[in-house]
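Q: Hi! Curious about what TfoX N-terminal domain-containing protein looks like structurally. Here's the sequence.
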Amino acid sequence: MAKEYFNKLSDLITKLKIEDEVTYSLEVKHFFSGAALYADGTICASWSPMGLAFKLPEQEAEDLIAEGKAKPLKYFAKGRTKKGYALFEDPESCEAVTWKKYFLKAAQQV
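A: Let's find out. The predicted structure is below.
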């Protein structure tokens, strides 16, 4: 299953040409049951069966969650909520370009 999300995340990064717009080195790696995007060796986004998650400025993540646009991120059901992360549960229901601004902001959080 992780390979599916690895491919989805890699393809989305390529399609949006994220690497052309950041000065950081980007790498997609397997991560739990999904895949994660690392900027200069630090995780900044992930795609898993739960959805697409981004590390954002803490207030922005809280606002997205409060507005019902995103959910809090927990890697495990009984785990704690990851502060500063916004989880979008059905990323494929939106156009790919929707995610570009979040990828760019997430990469800047490293």
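A: A fun detail: The domain at 2-108 is CATH 3.30.1460 (Yope Regulator; Chain: A,).
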